[in-house]
Amino acid sequence: MSFNLYDIPKINLCLLPTPIVALNRLSDYLEGPQIYMKRDDLTGVAFGGNKNRKLEYLLADALQKNADTVITEGAIYSNHCLQTAACTSKLGINCELVLSGIEPSEITGNFLLFKILEIPLYIVNNSSDRKNYMREREKKLILKGKKPYIIPTGGSNALGALGYINCILEIKNQIKQSNIEFNYFVHAAGSSGTQAGLLIGKKLFYPEINIISISAGIDASYLETETVRIVKEFQSKFNVNQDLSRIPTKIVTGYEGPGYGLPSKEMVETVKLVAQLEGVFLDPVYNGKAMVGIIDMIKSGNFSENEKILFLHSGGGPSIFNYNQAFCKQIP
Ligand SMILES: Cc1ncc(COP(=O)(O)O)c(C=O)c1O
What we know:
The protein has two domains: 5-49 and 157-328, Rossmann fold, CATH 3.40.50; 51-155, Rossmann fold (3-Layer(aba) Sandwich). The protein has eleven helices and nine strands. The chain has helices at residues 24-30, 51-64, 79-91, 109-117, 130-143, 158-178, 193-205, 220-237, 265-278, 287-299, 324-328; strands spanning 20-22, 34-39, 69-75, 94-100, 121-124, 148-151, 184-189, 210-215, 308-313. The strands form two sheets. The protein has a five-stranded mixed beta sheet with strand order 1-2-9-7-8, sandwiched between helices. The chain has a four-stranded parallel beta sheet with strand order 5-4-3-6, sandwiched between helices. Pyridoxal-5'-phosphate (PLP) binds at residues 49-50, 79-80, 154, 156, 188-195, 283, 286, 314-316.
């Protein structure tokens, strides 16, 4: 039997389908192609976001393996960690987070939400220390008779990628109902799971759509290598007839400003523009920067007026509150 998405165990955690909305005022302002937004900031658990889709498959696997404690990792304000903590809370499974960075002196954003959920936090200095620490926690939990389940950073593996294959099928269904065909689907890239899922989904179900993946400031060659790794893992884990080995994995860079997580003048202006024209808040780390990218590409004449661009709003809302300085004062 060949690959059938609907045969793979999944738990319903998200409010799906997420809406697709036309950004008419932004499109008019830019005098370019029509821009639409896929509202994955409205996936439902916690403050929404793309990780909830991945977790529908990852946590189904954890439950199938009778896991009682999920361990995952991320940066100190990680969106993935928040969504994992909230989804495991909803399912009544324990969760532990291994976070890298410095414990914030002012508790805000996702860090505040971890505290509200009362999730055990283990803070290490560097992101490179997280994996070993997760293994140590795994060993300790096993010694205590627990059944831990490790989810990698960003939920980015073959199982997590299923979430965005499902999203591609969801968009195809929405197109059938609305009769709007999209030429491009734009998203922010951080740990490659979303890109891998979208590219596999395109190859298997929606070849006409062009995927534009914009780095949030992570090295493009690292992201491309990660996407290739996830796609390979996917090919060997699931019985896919098509050869996925030649899927092109281009990452667009140049819109990250001073670096990952660091505010830029362009990001601040863009987040304000979209909020003021559309009433939608983009996060400063991922979607704000991806929107800087797509607006620059539109202004550079890369698209014609009759083309349609679908922009993925992948969540991350609470992180806006970590950037009050950037939004309230002028960045040089
Ligand atoms: C809000 C948000 N958008 C986009 C991404 C990128 O997704 P991925 O890690 O699957 O590349 C992340 C996480 O990295 C995120 O938290």
